[in-house]
Amino acid sequence: MNYREVRERDTELQRQTTELAAKQRGQVQKTTIEYLGLVETLLEKERYDEAQLYLQRIRDIAPENPRLLSLEMKLAQSREAYQQRLRDLAQTKVLIDRLLAEADEYILAGRLVQPLNASAFARHEEILALDPGNVEARALLQRLVQLHLDGVDRALRNGKLQEAGILLDDMTKIAPANPEIARLEAELKQTLLQKQERMRQLNALLTQASALPGEAAAVQRRDLYSAALDMDPGNQLALNGLESANAAIARIELRQKQQARENSAALLQHAQQLLEKRPATPKNFSKALEFLLESQRQSPDLSAIAVQLEQLPQFYVEAIQREIAAGNYTGANHFLQAAIVLAPQNTELGRLQEELDALVEEEVVVPASF
Asked: Where would you tag: which of 58, 200, 241, 289 has the fewest CB atoms within 10 A of its CB?
């Protein structure tokens, strides 16, 4: 190979080497750009270990790249910021757990919304300030809403309208868009109107009762106060009025009972006089029976009346016997028929009936033999 050929070959080799070097430099530059972009993406996604790996690859192939140092600093700063956030999150979780525990205690104590700075809802707000998307805070709010809904329903059923109103006001503070609020407000309004009407009727009853003084109107007052207590069982005016009316009625009933006993005693005395009056007549006996029955109606517990009624058939028996002895069979029969109506099971009357029938028959037969 001559000199010229050698020169041409060296020139060609140098050209190929230059092209290869340029090609390699281009490939390194392309790879470096790709790695730089990838590192940026990994940093944004907080994938710091992978970002560190690609930064090392850049350092290996392009240690003089001007962006390498800035990315390494950014990696260090981002990693530290991330670790600080983790530490902050851990502290925040501890704080949130404490706030949730306090909220549970406030719920048990009935402090759902009030007082504003020491209630379950206040703790809910504090948790959201720390972590706006906290799932447990949302669950706490739902729990508070349900407790208010249940509380309003229960207060309305029990007639505690002021309590229902307070709960509804608190409900509008914690969940103003809840669709149940409108329904409960309408129900509370209707219940308030009904209560006002009951109060109007109650006051009318109390006014009417108080306008009826004296013992003569005691029964009317008792009925009016009883009706008032049906509407409001704890009404003190009605309770006092009913007690006074019952006392008046008791005094009236006592006097009536005493009068009834006096009347019964007088009727009993009249009956005894008629039964002992001579000559005895069925009319007197019948009247005596009327007096005894009326006396018993007025004083059912007066034992002397029962005794007299039990003895009455014996008065008839004695009267019948006297009439038979006097030969007055017709008179005896009048007494006998009245006595049988009074005491149909009396065996002595049955015997006297047979005796009287025989005497009457004998009286009839004897004249026929002449």
From this structure: 200
